[in-house]
C-alpha cells in the first residue's frame, strides 16, 4: 500500500497524530526491502554533493557487478587496403567484446573501438570489414589482436587467414564470419561506435563453442580473456608456453602484489597441470616458479608506468630469455629433486 493511501485511511478513521505516527511506523516495518530503499532515496537530500558522488561510484560498481554476469561474444574486426605505392596490403585487426546485433531488416550489427585507434582510421578509408566470431579455443587470437598494432609490421604474420575478393582479411577456423559494409559511425565518450550492414554471413561446418567474455576485473579485454581461460583451465595446451607462464604471473602480480599473487600463481599452475596431466612432460617445479615470481615482481616494482601493457613489459625486460634461469642456477642444482619440491636459493649469483 502506498504512503498516501495509508495516511488517507488513518485520517478517515479519525486517528490522532500519535496514532498516525504509530501507523507510519507499522507501515514502514511491513515494507519490503526494495520499497524501503526507494523511500530512502526519495527522502535523501538532493544538494549533498558528497552523497551524490558516492552514489555515482556505487552505481559504477553495481554496473560492473551486473556485467560480470552478462557474457559478451568475442570478435576480431578486420579490414584491409592495398597500397599501390608500396605494393603492400595494409591489414588491421582488433579484438572487441562490444559486438551486438542491432537489427534484422536490414541486418545491422555494431561494435565499439577505444580511441585513438589505427583501425578506426583505416575503416574510414575502406568502409568494409569482417567480424570474425572467435571459437572458445582461439584465446590466442583474442589476446594477439587486443594488443596495439606496431607501425610498419604485419599484424597478421603467423595468423592463419586469407584475403577475400574485397581485400578484407578473414581469420580461419572461427565460429562464424560476417562480411559487412559501414553504414555509420558515432563518437560516444572515448569510443567510436561503428554500424555495419551484413552482406554475407558464414558459419563453421563444425559446431564450435564461442569464446565469451565476462568483465570480471579492470584488466584489458585481452588479458581478461587470457586469465579467464587459464583459471577455467580451458586455455589450449599448445598455448601454455613460456610466454603464457610469464603473462599469467604478470597479471596476478600487477593486480594483487607479490605476496597475494604467489599462492594464486602456484595453485593456478597446479590446477592447469592437473587438467592437462596427459600432456604434461615435466610437472610443477617450485624453484623455477618462485624464481620467476621474484623476477617478474622485481620488474613490475621498477616500472613507473602503471598503464603499461604486457607487450610493453616483455619488451623492456629480458624475462623471455630461457637462459635467464641458468645465470643464477647451475644445471645440476635446478634439475635436482630438492629444487623441484622446495625453493632453493641460487648458487651462481644472488637474486635482484
TrEMBL record:
The cross-references to Pfam families, in alphabetical order and at most eight, read: Flavin_Reduct
Q: Which residues form the Flavin reductase like domain?
A: 67-220
Key words of the record: Oxidoreductase
Give the matching InterPro entries: Flavin_Rdtase-like_dom (IPR002563), NADH-dep_flavin_reductase (IPR050268), Split_barrel_FMN-bd (IPR012349)
Domain of life, per lineage: Eukaryota
One example GO MF annotation? FMN binding
The protein here is known as: Flavin reductase like domain-containing protein
Organism name: Ridgeia piscesae (Tubeworm)
Amino acid at each position: 500500500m502506498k504512503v498516501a493511501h495509508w495516511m488517507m485511511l488513518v485520517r478517515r478513521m479519525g486517528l490522532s497524530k500519535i496514532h498516525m505516527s504509530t501507523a507510519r511506523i507499522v507501515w514502514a516495518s511491513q515494507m519490503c526491502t526494495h520499497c524501503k530503499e526507494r523511500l530512502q532515496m526519495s527522502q535523501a537530500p538532493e544538494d549533498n554533493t558528497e552523497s551524490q558522488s558516492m552514489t555515482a561510484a556505487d552505481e559504477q560498481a553495481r554496473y560492473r557487478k551486473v556485467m560480470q554476469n552478462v557474457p559478451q561474444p568475442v570478435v576480431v574486426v578486420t579490414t584491409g587496403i592495398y597500397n599501390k605505392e608500396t605494393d603492400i596490403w595494409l591489414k588491421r585487426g582488433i579484438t572487441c567484446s562490444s559486438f551486438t546485433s542491432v537489427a534484422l531488416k536490414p541486418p545491422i550489427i555494431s561494435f565499439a573501438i577505444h580511441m585513438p585507434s589505427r583501425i578506426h582510421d583505416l575503416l574510414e578509408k575502406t568502409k568494409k570489414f569482417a567480424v570474425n566470431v572467435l571459437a572458445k579455443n582461439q584465446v590466442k587470437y583474442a589476446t594477439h589482436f587486443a594488443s596495439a598494432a606496431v607501425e610498419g609490421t604485419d599484424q597478421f604474420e603467423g595468423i592463419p587467414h586469407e584475403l577475400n575478393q574485397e581485400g578484407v582479411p578473414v581469420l580461419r577456423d572461427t565460429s562464424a564470419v560476417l562480411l559487412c559494409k559501414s553504414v555509420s559511425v558515432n563518437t560516444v565518450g572515448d569510443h567510436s561506435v561503428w554500424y555495419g550492414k551484413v552482406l554475407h554471413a558464414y558459419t563453421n561446418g563444425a559446431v564450435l563453442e564461442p569464446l565469451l567474455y565476462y568483465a570480471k576485473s579492470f584488466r584489458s579485454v585481452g588479458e581478461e580473456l587470457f586469465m579467464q581461460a587459464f583459471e577455467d583451465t580451458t586455455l589450449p595446451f599448445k598455448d601454455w608456453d613460456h610466454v603464457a607462464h610469464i603473462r599469467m604471473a604478470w597479471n596476478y602480480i600487477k593486480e594483487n602484489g607479490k605476496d597475494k599473487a604467489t599462492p594464486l600463481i602456484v595453485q593456478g599452475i597446479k590446477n592447469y597441470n592437473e587438467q592437462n596431466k596427459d600432456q604434461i612432460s615435466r610437472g610443477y617445479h617450485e624453484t623455477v616458479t618462485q624464481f620467476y615470481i621474484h623476477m617478474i615482481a622485481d620488474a613490475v616494482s621498477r616500472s613507473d608506468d602503471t598503464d603499461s601493457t604486457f607487450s610493453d613489459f616483455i619488451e623492456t625486460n629480458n624475462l623471455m630469455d630461457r637462459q635467464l634461469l641458468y645465470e643464477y642456477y647451475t644445471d645440476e642444482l635446478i634439475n635436482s629433486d630438492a629444487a623441484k619440491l622446495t625453493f632453493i636459493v641460487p648458487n651462481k649469483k644472488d637474486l635482484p
